[in-house]
């Protein structure tokens, strides 16, 4: 049998990776400082500055990431986060793989994880609401009609905390069960693709599948 062909392809742009890690660090600072402010209020004065700095960084990187959704290149764009029927089926298979702890194999995809891609859009929306509610609280506005801004901010904190935990667990799961090197890909921008020959190698014929063909196949509707 012919040995699998291994390809290393640049998937994530440098700007997107900076946004990812800037968002990651700022969200972690905000979650930790927000938790301490809520549950240990006597420490609030000492943590306010850290919370405000984290919020400022988040506003900056989220603005850039939203700009990339509209005016970025290739895998930065919004269209790559909107699932089609094929990607929805793949997303279901990813979820089944999680629930089976890897006994059900993961599908193959080119760039964004088909399960998490639309969830990123939801996360961006929640982060925008969190920024909005935080700015209202900063200006001593605690109610919008009957809506408690503080309760809204706490709910956003809980949702983002859950998302962060699941995303970290999923990242380690993929590095353990898959071959795409997803964690290092968000550092250096490259994913690993293993392309297996569909036919046994003979003196008369052999099969070579290009990575571009794989990309088109994975992204078909």
Q: Overview of this structure, please?
A:
By secondary structure, this protein is mainly alpha-helical. The chain is built from seven helices and four strands; from the N terminus they run βααααββααβα. The protein has helices spanning 14-39, 44-71, 85-99, 117-138, 149-177, 182-188, 211-218; strands at 5-10, 143-144, 147-148, 190-195. The chain has a two-stranded antiparallel ribbon. α4 (117-138) packs antiparallel against α5 (149-177). Mean pLDDT is 86; it is low at 201-207.
Descriptive labels:
221 residues; mainly alpha; two-stranded antiparallel ribbon; 7 helices; 61% helix; elongated
Lateral strand order in the biggest sheet = 1-4
Helix/strand/pairing category: mainly alpha
Helix content bin: 55-70%
Give the amount of beta strand, in percent.
5-15%
Total number of helices: 7
The SSE string, one letter per element, is EHHHHEEHHEH
The rounded Rg comes to: 21 Å
**Major sheet: size, sense and barrel closure?**
2 strands, antiparallel
- Estimate the mean pLDDT confidence: 86
Question: Helices, strands, pairings?
Answer:
Blueprint: E1 5-10, H1 14-39, H2 44-71, H3 85-99, H4 117-138, E2 143-144, E3 147-148, H5 149-177, H6 182-188, E4 190-195, H7 211-218
Antiparallel strand pairs: 1-4, 2-3
Question: Nutshell version of this structure?
Answer:
Helices cover 61% and strands 7% of the residues. By secondary structure, it is mainly alpha-helical.
């Amino acid at each position: 049998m012919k040995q699998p062909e291994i390809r290393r392809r640049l998937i994530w742009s440098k700007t997107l990776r900076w946004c990812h890690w800037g968002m990651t660090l700022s969200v972690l600072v905000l979650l930790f400082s927000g938790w301490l402010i809520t549950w240990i209020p006597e420490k609030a004065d000492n943590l306010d500055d850290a919370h405000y700095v984290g919020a400022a960084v988040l506003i900056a990187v989220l603005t850039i990431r939203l700009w990339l959704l509209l005016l970025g290149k290739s895998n930065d764009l919004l269209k790559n986060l909107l699932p089609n029927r094929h990607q929805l089926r793949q997303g279901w298979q990813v979820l089944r793989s999680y629930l089976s702890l890897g006994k059900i194999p993961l599908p193959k995809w080119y760039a964004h994880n088909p399960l998490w891609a639309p969830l990123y859009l939801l996360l961006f929306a929640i982060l925008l609401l969190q920024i909005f509610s935080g700015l209202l609280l900063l200006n001593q506005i605690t109610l919008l009609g009957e809506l408690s801004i503080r309760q809204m901010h706490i709910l956003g904190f809980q949702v983002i905390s859950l998302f962060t935990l699941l995303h970290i667990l999923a990242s380690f799961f993929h590095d353990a069960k898959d071959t795409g090197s997803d964690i290092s890909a968000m550092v250096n921008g490259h994913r690993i693709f293993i392309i297996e020959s569909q036919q046994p190698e003979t003196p008369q014929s052999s099969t070579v599948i290009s990575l571009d063909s794989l990309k088109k196949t994975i992204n078909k509707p």
